[in-house]
Amino acid sequence: MSETGKDFSIRQADPKDADALAQLGARTFDETFGHLYSTENLESFQRENHDRQVYDRLLASDDCHVLVAEAPDGAMAGYAVAGPCGLPVDDPGPNDIEIKRLYVDRPYQNAGLGKALLEPLLEWCEARAPSGLYLSVYAHNHGAQRLYRRYGFDKVKEYEFLVGEHRDPEFIFRKKMEG
Ligand SMILES: CC(C)(COP(=O)(O)OP(=O)(O)OC[C@H]1O[C@@H](n2cnc3c(N)ncnc32)[C@H](O)[C@@H]1OP(=O)(O)O)[C@@H](O)C(=O)NCCC(=O)NCCS
């Protein structure tokens, strides 16, 4: 457990967090990006990515790391996930890792929680000596891109990300490794 500047705590998720993770994930995606898609495409994406069972599988996986940020009243305020890279990178390595999710619930955004989740997640990733450390970000999500660039990530590829049948312009970012 570590405290952020605002009395939030960061802890590793456990299996009983699956429902809250699914709800926070679906709500944050909808609030941030939902206006871009038809109802049908959005529902299809949410079923595939923010269903309770998706989180059950994530939490059961030894290869994934899930951190949650908890408000002083116990509410889940954000979460972050890393695990084996599933992105279409050009030069895949044997131990590529991907930051798969970084979501902060809207009322808590812009208060430092994104950074408070990202920093220990990056420590976990880097301790595994990844051949490459990647993430995927919507081409027009400039705020998130600024955050990732501050931690040494930079764009290496453009591709299309499917939301249902809708194709989004998306960037793959790779972290520059020291040494
Ligand atoms: C991106 C996100 C995780 C950042 O967490 P946060 O707690 O708001 O961020 P912090 O307070 O730790 O750091 C602030 C930085 O985050 C980024 N940021 C802040 N608000 C943001 C927003 N609404 N959307 C995207 N990025 C944002 C900016 O880089 C900001 O710094 P800057 O304004 O000085 O450039 C959070 O805003 C979020 O969950 N947004 C919606 C979902 C999302 O876009 N996730 C990333 C998908 S790749």
TrEMBL record:
Ranges for domain N-acetyltransferase: 8-178
GO molecular function: acyltransferase activity, transferring groups other than amino-acyl groups
CDD domains reported in the protein's UniProt record: NAT_SF
Stored Pfam families: Acetyltransf_1
Source superkingdom: Bacteria
PROSITE patterns: GNAT
Protein name: N-acetyltransferase
Organism per entry: Aquisalinus luteolus
